[in-house]
Amino acid sequence: MTGLSGQGSEAHKNGGLSRIQERNRSLILDAALGEFSKKGFSGATVERIAAEAGMSKSNLLYYFSSKEAIYKATLAHILEVWLAPLKTLDPSGAPSQELSAYIRQKIEMSAEFPEASRLFANEVMQGAPQILPILEGELKRLVTEKSAVIEDWITAGKMQRVEPVHLIFTIWATTQHYADFSIQIKALTGKDLSDPEFFRETVASVTALILNGIGLTPPQDTPA
Amino acid sequence: MTGLSGQGSEAHKNGGLSRIQERNRSLILDAALGEFSKKGFSGATVERIAAEAGMSKSNLLYYFSSKEAIYKATLAHILEVWLAPLKTLDPSGAPSQELSAYIRQKIEMSAEFPEASRLFANEVMQGAPQILPILEGELKRLVTEKSAVIEDWITAGKMQRVEPVHLIFTIWATTQHYADFSIQIKALTGKDLSDPEFFRETVASVTALILNGIGLTPPQDTPA
DNA sequence: GAGGGATTTGACCAAATGGTCAAGATGCAA
DNA sequence: TTGCATCTTGACCATTTGGTCAAATCCCTC
User: Fold this and answer.
1) pLDDT tens-digit profile of B102-127?
2) Does A121 touch chain B (CB under 8 A)?
3) By the 8 A CB rule, do B207 and B107 touch?
4) Is the pTM of this model over 0.85?
């Protein structure tokens, strides 16, 4: 049989995936993230992804039926991780705590998964051909929910009045900027988030600016 | 003769460009901006750029010797406009005035030239293969100069202490976000900067947040 | 250790695409 | 109007690249 759609005796162990399948899919997705984030969808080649994953192009196409399929899978793979932090905003927490934690998480993700950030940015900038439904569906629900949380904080007098979505956009913009434009940042400052000192400085600056911006005092994590 | 490098009797009028040359180059650059910003360098095709510019691919290649040449020219064409606003930061002005004017200008550019913003973002995210020298040269000098201006404002007690580069990055990030991620913003809010009301709201929100963030009061341009 | 499905690959194909070229059309100065 | 340079294009080419296929090879179960 060709292809692994009909998985014969597949009552295997894990979600119908053999050990080999699991390993290879993972290798492919890792390689694909690198390629797609570096070159964009069109610029990436199946051949290079396969090479990076240590297998032949044919074999890669045995696991994913097309370049677009790899791309979609890669996107799906990073998306949940990427949107996770926002979900942790806790309505019962203190705004300064919650928001600074959120900002820190986002900057950590920019430091740890800059490729995911760039892939996501790329997809959205091209018009979000693959993930528009997710943006309009799941993400919109999430943002609406968290906007209401912020609105409640404002109503309760816990923070200054801001348009909640703009606050969210500002946090996204600033934190992701350090991943997406890291080349520019490196060109200008000589450093990027992979430098621990610069990382600390960035968290401090961004947090201070945004929290001050909404009339809050940033909590001290680590004394200087 | 083939190609227009040796321009024979070219003491024409304007910089050695005939009327036809000027018109066509301009048509090409406009079309190229659209294509490159929508599809990225690899995704763009010379054929489509030519079609958009209303001429044959061959003719386009008569004006620009290669796809890369078109790309470079497009980039150069937008770059000066793109970096211009920062140059207007006036050391002798009041920080709140100067910065809010800068922020407004940047958001105006995001509204008016979102494609330029996306093209620039794309280029940088791919590692700035073409413009790295400019980032490390001209842009770095400019940023250093303006960082010093901000530093002076701080020293003079005119604004709160911030790391100047991070303030600049924050302004870039937030303002360009509204162009680069306009699809996402539209998916989430139903609007983008082309909506005058949303434009006003964005300027107000971003300006307020950032100026508050550095201990300044945003000046009122238009009463409510 | 034999049988059979899962995995892997090289050979191959068709379409897309950047770029060349020679010939023809056009604009302009004298 | 004529002559020449500029401008324009269709035909064509080489390369890249996504994807197919049949033939191995591997792995696991019985």
Assistant:
1) 999 999 999 999 999 999 999 999 99
2) yes
3) no
4) yes
